[in-house]
Amino acid sequence: MPGLIQTLIGEIERLPTDRLFGRVSSVRGLIVEIGGVQVNLSVGDRCRIIARDDRSVPCEVVGFRSGHALLLPYEGVEGVGLGCRAELTESAPMLRPSDAWLGRVINAFGEPVDDKGPMVLGERPYPVRAQPPPAHQRQRVGGKLDLGVRALNTFLTCCQGQRLGIFAGSGVGKSTVLSMLIRHSKAEIVVIGLVGERGREAREFIEDDLGEEGLARSVVVLATSDEGPLMRRQAAYATLTVAEYFRDRGHNVLCLMDSVTRFAMAQREISLSAGEPPASKGYTPTVFAELPRLLERAGPGVPGTGSITGLFTVLVEGDDHNEPISDAVRGILDGHIVLDRAIAERNRYPAVNVLRSVSRTMPACNTDEQNLLVNTARKIITTYEDMAELIRLGAYRMGSNPEVDAAIHYYPMIEAFLAQPKEEATDLDTGYAMLKGILETQPGGEAGTH
Ligand SMILES: Nc1ncnc2c1ncn2[C@@H]1O[C@H](COP(=O)(O)OP(=O)(O)OP(=O)(O)O)[C@@H](O)[C@H]1O
Ligand SMILES: [Mg+2]
């Protein structure tokens, strides 16, 4: 336990010797106003209100009004009343990740929420709200990352340091795709942010999908839907902070977040409570300013460090892919994976719609042969889907168009290729080999040689 003792000594040394405090002057809904220390505070600072029952309620400064500071609590405000003491704590929230965090489940403050004892803290503090590395100093995206899911590996190849969104309506399989990535990808380290998802799902995810083996190379940051908006927002920041720690140690990190939409919703709640006027669909301008600040933190690091490959799920409300959050996130990321309800309804999982999905780094990272394979397969899918109605109705006569004839032959095989049971992994080379094998079959005959 020497690590733990060092951690404790460090904690004691870091305790502040003097403390500024103000008093609660009003509580309105979720917002607590304090007076007395407002000139010492700025937006984003942390305070701690001592409630009547001596409970300490952590809060964050979200704004100022008529000479008072507006605080939003991380937890419930029961027991907080007029005149309660509000102490200023450290100004910028920090985490102290260490390698010993692998295998652990933590909350937005970096506190353990599993039953594996206290966290061993690292030497260096990492800010929860770090700036992304300067664009001109960042490395280019690296080589391919094997995601273990063949629809993605072949049609939407992902490179180290790339950021992709997984877009789908509710219940189309976003979380299931993430669980496949956790189990099957070849990433060295996986940092998973479960932001605002259901508590039951989070537990199943950690126990069943991740399992002991998956957890051993992962850190999970968890804020369930019943936690306050500040906790949910901070869980998203903390996920990136932990990923940045491992990136700075030279690792290629896979950062998964379920979901960015819940992060945006948390920010919306925070902004609206602080009195910011809503813009698009109730989302405030701050939401659209915060999204790139969060998502840009994933990506390649500066030379001498590793990279953060980011896969972020986006809940597409009402299956409308043009709703404001989807639109904003799509514009920030280097590609989007679209899961389609119609495909899920015909029971083809993962329900990736390869025609509507794009990986912006893809043609450059593949060989000419691989690009040709993928483009040929895409063309077959397009041809078939254009004619699908006629074919289904029996209105198409075989022989009238050789391209359509070929598509009718290849399409079911490509569909079968795109389907992949949750437990099965397919590496990059096998994926391409399978696709090649399909395209080498001859319509109406056995495997050919071209
Ligand atoms: N690979 C798969 N194989 C079989 N069924 C699947 C697969 N992926 C998803 N499903 C089905 O779809 C359901 C919803 O999946 P999942 O929870 O991953 O969706 P989601 O998009 O994360 O949903 P939400 O928007 O509610 O978070 C699952 O309960 C399961 O029935
Ligand atoms: Mg989900």
UniProtKB/TrEMBL annotation:
<keyword id="KW-0653">Protein transport</keyword>
<dbReference type="InterPro" id="IPR040627">
    <property type="entry name" value="T3SS_ATPase_C"/>
</dbReference>
<keyword id="KW-0963">Cytoplasm</keyword>
<protein>
    <recommendedName>
        <fullName>Flagellum-specific ATP synthase</fullName>
        <ecNumber>7.1.2.2</ecNumber>
    </recommendedName>
</protein>
<keyword id="KW-1005">Bacterial flagellum biogenesis</keyword>
<dbReference type="GO" id="GO:0005524">
    <property type="term" value="F:ATP binding"/>
</dbReference>
<dbReference type="GO" id="GO:0030254">
    <property type="term" value="P:protein secretion by the type III secretion system"/>
</dbReference>
<dbReference type="InterPro" id="IPR003593">
    <property type="entry name" value="AAA+_ATPase"/>
</dbReference>
<dbReference type="GO" id="GO:0016887">
    <property type="term" value="F:ATP hydrolysis activity"/>
</dbReference>
<keyword id="KW-0813">Transport</keyword>
<dbReference type="GO" id="GO:0005737">
    <property type="term" value="C:cytoplasm"/>
</dbReference>
<dbReference type="InterPro" id="IPR000194">
    <property type="entry name" value="ATPase_F1/V1/A1_a/bsu_nucl-bd"/>
</dbReference>
<dbReference type="InterPro" id="IPR050053">
    <property type="entry name" value="ATPase_alpha/beta_chains"/>
</dbReference>
<keyword id="KW-0375">Hydrogen ion transport</keyword>
<dbReference type="Pfam" id="PF18269">
    <property type="entry name" value="T3SS_ATPase_C"/>
</dbReference>
<dbReference type="InterPro" id="IPR027417">
    <property type="entry name" value="P-loop_NTPase"/>
</dbReference>
<dbReference type="Pfam" id="PF00006">
    <property type="entry name" value="ATP-synt_ab"/>
</dbReference>
<dbReference type="InterPro" id="IPR020003">
    <property type="entry name" value="ATPase_a/bsu_AS"/>
</dbReference>
<dbReference type="InterPro" id="IPR005714">
    <property type="entry name" value="ATPase_T3SS_FliI/YscN"/>
</dbReference>
<keyword id="KW-0547">Nucleotide-binding</keyword>
<comment type="function">
    <text>Probable catalytic subunit of a protein translocase for flagellum-specific export, or a proton translocase involved in local circuits at the flagellum.</text>
</comment>
<dbReference type="GO" id="GO:0009288">
    <property type="term" value="C:bacterial-type flagellum"/>
</dbReference>
<dbReference type="GO" id="GO:0030257">
    <property type="term" value="C:type III protein secretion system complex"/>
</dbReference>
<keyword id="KW-1006">Bacterial flagellum protein export</keyword>
<dbReference type="GO" id="GO:0044781">
    <property type="term" value="P:bacterial-type flagellum organization"/>
</dbReference>
<comment type="similarity">
    <text>Belongs to the ATPase alpha/beta chains family.</text>
</comment>
<feature type="domain" description="AAA+ ATPase">
    <location>
        <begin position="160"/>
        <end position="344"/>
    </location>
</feature>
<keyword id="KW-0066">ATP synthesis</keyword>
<keyword id="KW-0067">ATP-binding</keyword>
<keyword id="KW-0406">Ion transport</keyword>
<dbReference type="InterPro" id="IPR022426">
    <property type="entry name" value="FliI_clade3"/>
</dbReference>
<dbReference type="GO" id="GO:0008564">
    <property type="term" value="F:protein-exporting ATPase activity"/>
</dbReference>
<keyword id="KW-1278">Translocase</keyword>
<dbReference type="GO" id="GO:0046933">
    <property type="term" value="F:proton-transporting ATP synthase activity, rotational mechanism"/>
</dbReference>
